[in-house]
Amino acid sequence: MATSSVQPDLPLVRRLEAVGFRAWPAASVVYDGSWQVRLTGGHPSKRVNCVVPLDPSDHRDLDQRLQKAAKRFADYGRTLVLRETPLAPPVLIQHLERTGWEVFETADVMTVDLSRLELPDTLDYLPSHDIGRFADACLHVAEEDPALKPALAEILSAIKPTSGFFMKQDPSNGAVATVLCVQDNDLAGILSLAVAKSHRRERLGTDMLSSALRWARISGARTAWLQVEATNEAAIALYDRFGFTKAYSYRYWRKS
Prior knowledge:
256 residues, 7 helices, transferase, MshD_Acetyltransferase, acyltransferase activity, transferring groups other than amino-acyl groups, GNAT family N-acetyltransferase, Acyl_CoA_acyltransferase
Protein backbone atom coordinates (compact mmCIF):
# COMPACT_ATOMS: atom_id res chain seq x y z
CA MET A 1 0.00 0.00 0.00
CA ALA A 2 1.01 3.59 -0.38
CA THR A 3 2.68 4.84 2.77
CA SER A 4 0.62 6.89 5.19
CA SER A 5 1.39 8.79 8.36
CA VAL A 6 -1.59 7.09 10.03
CA GLN A 7 -1.26 3.33 10.30
CA PRO A 8 -4.53 1.37 9.94
CA ASP A 9 -6.05 -0.31 12.99
CA LEU A 10 -5.42 -3.94 11.94
CA PRO A 11 -8.00 -5.51 14.31
CA LEU A 12 -10.58 -3.12 12.85
CA VAL A 13 -9.45 -3.98 9.32
CA ARG A 14 -9.87 -7.71 10.08
CA ARG A 15 -13.36 -7.13 11.46
CA LEU A 16 -14.49 -4.94 8.57
CA GLU A 17 -13.07 -7.40 6.04
CA ALA A 18 -14.99 -10.24 7.73
CA VAL A 19 -18.31 -8.38 7.72
CA GLY A 20 -17.62 -7.26 4.15
CA PHE A 21 -17.25 -10.88 3.06
CA ARG A 22 -20.57 -11.75 4.72
CA ALA A 23 -22.32 -8.71 3.26
CA TRP A 24 -21.36 -9.58 -0.36
CA PRO A 25 -20.75 -13.35 -0.36
CA ALA A 26 -18.92 -15.18 -3.12
CA ALA A 27 -20.34 -18.40 -4.52
CA SER A 28 -17.03 -20.24 -4.00
CA VAL A 29 -14.57 -19.53 -1.18
CA VAL A 30 -11.44 -21.59 -0.59
CA TYR A 31 -8.34 -20.85 1.44
CA ASP A 32 -4.68 -21.19 0.53
CA GLY A 33 -3.11 -20.62 3.90
CA SER A 34 -4.56 -17.26 4.95
CA TRP A 35 -5.29 -16.20 1.38
CA GLN A 36 -9.01 -16.21 0.67
CA VAL A 37 -9.81 -17.17 -2.93
CA ARG A 38 -13.24 -15.82 -3.87
CA LEU A 39 -15.00 -16.72 -7.13
CA THR A 40 -18.51 -16.27 -8.51
CA GLY A 41 -18.93 -17.62 -12.00
CA GLY A 42 -22.03 -15.69 -13.03
CA HIS A 43 -21.27 -12.22 -11.69
CA PRO A 44 -18.30 -9.96 -12.58
CA SER A 45 -18.09 -8.02 -9.28
CA LYS A 46 -14.44 -7.79 -8.22
CA ARG A 47 -15.37 -8.22 -4.56
CA VAL A 48 -16.56 -11.77 -5.28
CA ASN A 49 -13.81 -12.58 -7.80
CA CYS A 50 -10.46 -11.91 -6.16
CA VAL A 51 -7.72 -13.31 -3.95
CA VAL A 52 -7.52 -11.57 -0.57
CA PRO A 53 -4.39 -12.20 1.57
CA LEU A 54 -5.33 -11.83 5.25
CA ASP A 55 -2.04 -12.26 7.15
CA PRO A 56 0.98 -9.95 6.70
CA SER A 57 3.35 -12.81 7.56
CA ASP A 58 1.95 -15.34 5.05
CA HIS A 59 4.23 -14.92 2.03
CA ARG A 60 5.69 -18.36 1.37
CA ASP A 61 5.89 -19.90 -2.15
CA LEU A 62 4.52 -16.79 -3.87
CA ASP A 63 5.04 -17.86 -7.46
CA GLN A 64 3.48 -21.28 -6.95
CA ARG A 65 0.47 -19.95 -5.06
CA LEU A 66 -0.20 -17.19 -7.58
CA GLN A 67 0.02 -19.70 -10.44
CA LYS A 68 -2.37 -22.02 -8.61
CA ALA A 69 -4.83 -19.17 -8.07
CA ALA A 70 -4.50 -18.08 -11.70
CA LYS A 71 -5.38 -21.63 -12.81
CA ARG A 72 -8.44 -21.64 -10.57
CA PHE A 73 -9.58 -18.29 -12.00
CA ALA A 74 -8.96 -19.52 -15.55
CA ASP A 75 -11.22 -22.49 -14.84
CA TYR A 76 -13.98 -19.94 -14.19
CA GLY A 77 -13.07 -18.02 -17.36
CA ARG A 78 -11.62 -15.15 -15.30
CA THR A 79 -8.29 -13.34 -15.05
CA LEU A 80 -6.63 -13.44 -11.64
CA VAL A 81 -7.28 -10.33 -9.52
CA LEU A 82 -5.64 -9.72 -6.14
CA ARG A 83 -7.13 -7.41 -3.52
CA GLU A 84 -4.51 -5.70 -1.35
CA THR A 85 -5.67 -4.51 2.07
CA PRO A 86 -3.42 -3.50 5.00
CA LEU A 87 -3.42 -7.22 5.89
CA ALA A 88 -1.53 -8.15 2.70
CA PRO A 89 2.12 -9.20 3.18
CA PRO A 90 4.50 -6.39 2.10
CA VAL A 91 6.75 -9.10 0.62
CA LEU A 92 3.89 -10.17 -1.66
CA ILE A 93 3.28 -6.60 -2.86
CA GLN A 94 6.98 -6.15 -3.61
CA HIS A 95 6.84 -9.41 -5.57
CA LEU A 96 3.87 -8.14 -7.62
CA GLU A 97 5.71 -4.92 -8.42
CA ARG A 98 8.79 -6.87 -9.59
CA THR A 99 6.88 -9.34 -11.71
CA GLY A 100 4.80 -7.03 -13.91
CA TRP A 101 1.57 -6.59 -11.95
CA GLU A 102 -0.28 -3.25 -11.90
CA VAL A 103 -2.82 -1.50 -9.67
CA PHE A 104 -6.02 -0.76 -11.58
CA GLU A 105 -8.39 0.44 -8.87
CA THR A 106 -8.20 1.91 -5.37
CA ALA A 107 -11.08 2.10 -2.91
CA ASP A 108 -11.64 3.46 0.58
CA VAL A 109 -13.42 1.77 3.47
CA MET A 110 -15.24 4.41 5.51
CA THR A 111 -17.06 4.26 8.88
CA VAL A 112 -19.30 6.46 10.98
CA ASP A 113 -20.58 6.32 14.56
CA LEU A 114 -24.35 6.04 14.19
CA SER A 115 -25.02 7.39 17.68
CA ARG A 116 -23.60 10.77 16.64
CA LEU A 117 -25.69 11.18 13.50
CA GLU A 118 -28.68 13.46 13.22
CA LEU A 119 -31.15 11.41 11.19
CA PRO A 120 -34.85 11.87 10.39
CA ASP A 121 -37.31 10.60 12.98
CA THR A 122 -39.15 8.65 10.32
CA LEU A 123 -38.07 6.58 7.34
CA ASP A 124 -38.73 8.15 3.95
CA TYR A 125 -38.28 4.70 2.41
CA LEU A 126 -39.13 1.38 4.01
CA PRO A 127 -36.94 -1.67 3.34
CA SER A 128 -38.21 -4.45 1.13
CA HIS A 129 -37.37 -8.13 1.36
CA ASP A 130 -38.18 -8.84 -2.29
CA ILE A 131 -34.83 -9.98 -3.69
CA GLY A 132 -36.01 -10.33 -7.28
CA ARG A 133 -37.49 -6.84 -7.35
CA PHE A 134 -34.40 -5.34 -5.77
CA ALA A 135 -32.12 -7.13 -8.24
CA ASP A 136 -34.20 -5.73 -11.12
CA ALA A 137 -33.98 -2.24 -9.58
CA CYS A 138 -30.19 -2.39 -9.13
CA LEU A 139 -29.60 -3.47 -12.71
CA HIS A 140 -32.01 -0.86 -14.08
CA VAL A 141 -30.53 2.03 -12.08
CA ALA A 142 -26.95 1.03 -12.93
CA GLU A 143 -27.88 0.41 -16.58
CA GLU A 144 -26.38 -3.08 -16.40
CA ASP A 145 -27.27 -6.19 -18.38
CA PRO A 146 -30.60 -7.68 -17.17
CA ALA A 147 -29.07 -11.10 -17.85
CA LEU A 148 -27.05 -10.63 -14.64
CA LYS A 149 -30.22 -10.94 -12.55
CA PRO A 150 -29.85 -14.65 -11.63
CA ALA A 151 -26.25 -14.16 -10.46
CA LEU A 152 -27.09 -10.97 -8.55
CA ALA A 153 -30.11 -12.62 -6.95
CA GLU A 154 -27.90 -15.53 -5.93
CA ILE A 155 -25.49 -13.15 -4.16
CA LEU A 156 -28.35 -11.30 -2.44
CA SER A 157 -29.99 -14.57 -1.38
CA ALA A 158 -26.74 -15.79 0.15
CA ILE A 159 -26.43 -12.82 2.53
CA LYS A 160 -26.97 -14.31 5.99
CA PRO A 161 -27.11 -11.19 8.22
CA THR A 162 -30.33 -9.16 8.37
CA SER A 163 -30.70 -7.11 5.19
CA GLY A 164 -32.88 -4.21 4.09
CA PHE A 165 -33.42 -3.57 0.38
CA PHE A 166 -34.34 0.07 -0.24
CA MET A 167 -35.73 1.27 -3.58
CA LYS A 168 -37.22 4.44 -5.00
CA GLN A 169 -39.64 3.89 -7.86
CA ASP A 170 -40.78 6.44 -10.44
CA PRO A 171 -44.17 5.63 -12.03
CA SER A 172 -42.89 6.51 -15.50
CA ASN A 173 -39.22 5.45 -15.28
CA GLY A 174 -39.25 2.47 -12.91
CA ALA A 175 -36.54 2.23 -10.26
CA VAL A 176 -34.46 5.40 -9.90
CA ALA A 177 -32.46 4.76 -6.69
CA THR A 178 -31.32 1.81 -4.58
CA VAL A 179 -29.35 1.03 -1.45
CA LEU A 180 -28.71 -2.20 0.44
CA CYS A 181 -28.11 -2.15 4.19
CA VAL A 182 -26.69 -5.31 5.82
CA GLN A 183 -26.79 -5.34 9.62
CA ASP A 184 -24.22 -7.68 11.14
CA ASN A 185 -24.54 -7.39 14.95
CA ASP A 186 -23.37 -3.85 15.81
CA LEU A 187 -22.06 -3.12 12.30
CA ALA A 188 -24.18 -2.03 9.34
CA GLY A 189 -22.84 -2.17 5.80
CA ILE A 190 -24.05 0.21 3.09
CA LEU A 191 -23.87 -1.34 -0.39
CA SER A 192 -25.35 -0.79 -3.86
CA LEU A 193 -26.16 2.88 -3.25
CA ALA A 194 -26.98 4.20 -6.72
CA VAL A 195 -29.11 6.88 -8.34
CA ALA A 196 -30.19 6.83 -11.96
CA LYS A 197 -28.44 9.41 -14.15
CA SER A 198 -31.77 11.07 -14.96
CA HIS A 199 -32.53 11.69 -11.27
CA ARG A 200 -29.24 12.91 -9.88
CA ARG A 201 -29.03 16.22 -7.98
CA GLU A 202 -32.47 15.56 -6.51
CA ARG A 203 -31.22 14.58 -3.01
CA LEU A 204 -32.21 10.98 -3.66
CA GLY A 205 -28.79 9.71 -2.55
CA THR A 206 -29.08 11.70 0.69
CA ASP A 207 -32.63 10.50 1.34
CA MET A 208 -31.88 6.84 0.58
CA LEU A 209 -28.75 6.83 2.73
CA SER A 210 -30.61 8.56 5.59
CA SER A 211 -33.32 5.91 5.54
CA ALA A 212 -30.83 3.03 5.46
CA LEU A 213 -28.78 4.46 8.33
CA ARG A 214 -31.90 5.24 10.39
CA TRP A 215 -33.14 1.68 9.86
CA ALA A 216 -29.73 0.29 10.86
CA ARG A 217 -29.67 2.34 14.06
CA ILE A 218 -33.22 1.32 14.99
CA SER A 219 -32.18 -2.29 14.38
CA GLY A 220 -29.29 -2.01 16.87
CA ALA A 221 -26.26 -1.14 14.76
CA ARG A 222 -23.78 1.27 16.33
CA THR A 223 -21.33 1.74 13.44
CA ALA A 224 -21.95 1.93 9.69
CA TRP A 225 -19.34 1.11 7.07
CA LEU A 226 -19.10 1.28 3.30
CA GLN A 227 -16.65 0.89 0.43
CA VAL A 228 -16.24 3.52 -2.28
CA GLU A 229 -13.92 3.96 -5.24
CA ALA A 230 -11.29 6.56 -4.39
CA THR A 231 -12.06 8.45 -7.62
CA ASN A 232 -15.79 8.74 -6.94
CA GLU A 233 -15.70 12.33 -5.69
CA ALA A 234 -19.47 12.83 -5.65
CA ALA A 235 -20.09 9.78 -3.48
CA ILE A 236 -17.23 10.63 -1.12
CA ALA A 237 -18.59 14.16 -0.73
CA LEU A 238 -21.99 12.69 0.22
CA TYR A 239 -20.41 10.35 2.77
CA ASP A 240 -18.31 13.20 4.18
CA ARG A 241 -21.49 15.16 4.84
CA PHE A 242 -22.80 12.26 6.91
CA GLY A 243 -19.58 12.14 8.93
CA PHE A 244 -18.01 9.03 7.40
CA THR A 245 -14.22 8.94 7.71
CA LYS A 246 -11.68 6.66 6.03
CA ALA A 247 -10.66 3.61 8.05
CA TYR A 248 -8.29 2.20 5.40
CA SER A 249 -7.85 1.78 1.65
CA TYR A 250 -7.47 -1.27 -0.55
CA ARG A 251 -6.21 -1.79 -4.08
CA TYR A 252 -6.89 -4.27 -6.88
CA TRP A 253 -3.95 -5.73 -8.81
CA ARG A 254 -3.74 -7.70 -12.06
CA LYS A 255 -0.94 -8.91 -14.30
CA SER A 256 -0.18 -6.24 -16.91
